[in-house]
Amino acid sequence: MNAFILFLNLGGGEVVLILFVILLLFGGKGIPGIARTLGKGIREFKDASNSIQKDIRESTGGLTDQINEHIQEVKKEIEKE
Q1: Which of 34, 64, 76, 80 is the most exposed place for a label (fewest CB within 10 A)?
Q2: How far is CA 57 from its chain centroid?
Q3: Domain count of the chain?
Q4: Looking at the predicted structure, is the pLDDT value of residue 10 above 80?
Q5: What does pLDDT average to over the chain?
Q6: How large is the C-alpha radius of gyration of the chain?
Q7: pLDDT at 49
Q8: Cβ contacts of residue 10 below 8 Å, gap of 6+?
């Protein structure tokens, strides 16, 4: 959360003002529901992001192995000379 606030370049006063406005708009009882929904959304985004990264790693895994094999072959050829 701190990284997000730093990304927006907000100071402490601005954050307090935003929280105060949220409190006025939604009341004390609505804030936990908003926080819960926001948390679920962030969790779903992270899960989707991790899934995409995993798929990319798996799809390029064979390519990485082939490149490493070629590198080893080239090293052996260089050592022979």
Answers
A1: 80
A2: 16
A3: 1
A4: no
A5: 84
A6: 25
A7: 94
A8: 18
Please list the alpha-helical segments (H only) found in the chain. Answer: 2-8, 12-80
Helix (H/G/I), strand (E/B), else coil: 1? coil
Condensed to tens digits (0 to 9), the pLDDT of residues 11-26 reads 888 888 888 888 888 8
Tokens read off for 27: 């009341």
CATH code, 20:
1.20.5
Scan for tokens 């991790």, then name that residue.
Answer: 50
Burial class, 5, CB count within 10 angstroms (exposed 0-12 / middle 13-18 / buried 19+): middle
Encoded tokens for 19: 């929280």
79 domain residue, yes or no: no
| Predicted TM-score (pTM) of this structure | 0.51
Structure tokens, 52: 């995409």
Residue 65 lies in a domain: no
